[in-house]
Amino acid sequence: MVRLSTITGLCLAASASAFAPSQVSTRTSALNAISPEKQVGVQAPIGFFDPLGFIQNGPYGSPEENFNHYRGVEVKHGRIAMAATVGMLTQQTTRFEGFLSPSQNLKFEDIPNGLGALKAVPLEGWVQMIVLIGAHEVLVKQREGKAPGDFGTGYFGFAMDDQSSKQLRALSVEVSNGRLAMLGILGMFASEIVHNGEVLAETKIFG
What are phi and psi of 56, to 5 degrees? Predict the structure, then answer.
């Protein structure tokens, strides 16, 4: 339990910068000047959803700056959740070959899928992952004046920086899929807890 608490605390510390108020004001571009109610991600049937008024009253500056921060966090978490969801499904049937920790004679195939990996991975392994996450947070920065989540890496090698209908559709799809993935990975974790550690128990209905 102490080990799990330590790992959880380090993960929270590594990701805390995502919620820290920015010290440098982001330049407002033509994209950012658009009203939040008309931004990508405002979709039927709910439409614009901000019941607690974070956009108007948030700590990051103007409504545009608040929106950019929260949208950047949403996109980042959506990308992580999409990777996590695909990872959970992949690990259910496929594992890397070789040793995760040669000194402990621990192979990748010995690591359980799902939440059980939190206890099975050695602390040294978690430290390496946390350092990598922290380095990414420090070194990879949002491009000023660009859409939230734009780190200059393009979309699988294709640069879309023209605000065309193709780009806006791609951004809308990414936001939607990210939201679904966040619900999906939380649902997988909840299912694992409800079924006493059995991962993806619902998939049994497919044979």
Answer: -80, -35
171: exposed, middle or buried (Cβ count in 10 Å: 0-12, 13-18, 19+): buried
Give the gyration radius of the chain's Cα atoms. Answer: 20
pLDDT tens, residue by residue, 86-113: 999 998 888 888 999 999 999 999 999 9
The sign of the torsion formed by the CA atoms of 105, 109, 110, 113 equals positive
Q: Which helix (H) or strand (E) holds 107?
A: strand 106-107
The two three-digit tokens of residue 169, written as one number: 């559709």
CB atoms within 10 A of CB 26: 21
Under 8 Å CB-to-CB from 37, ≥6 apart: which residues?
47, 48
List of residues 6+ apart from 116 with CB closer than 8 A: 197, 199
Residue 77 structure tokens: 């978490």
Identify any residues that bridge with 43 across adjacent strands, giving them in sequence order: 47
Residues pairing with 158 in the sheet: 155
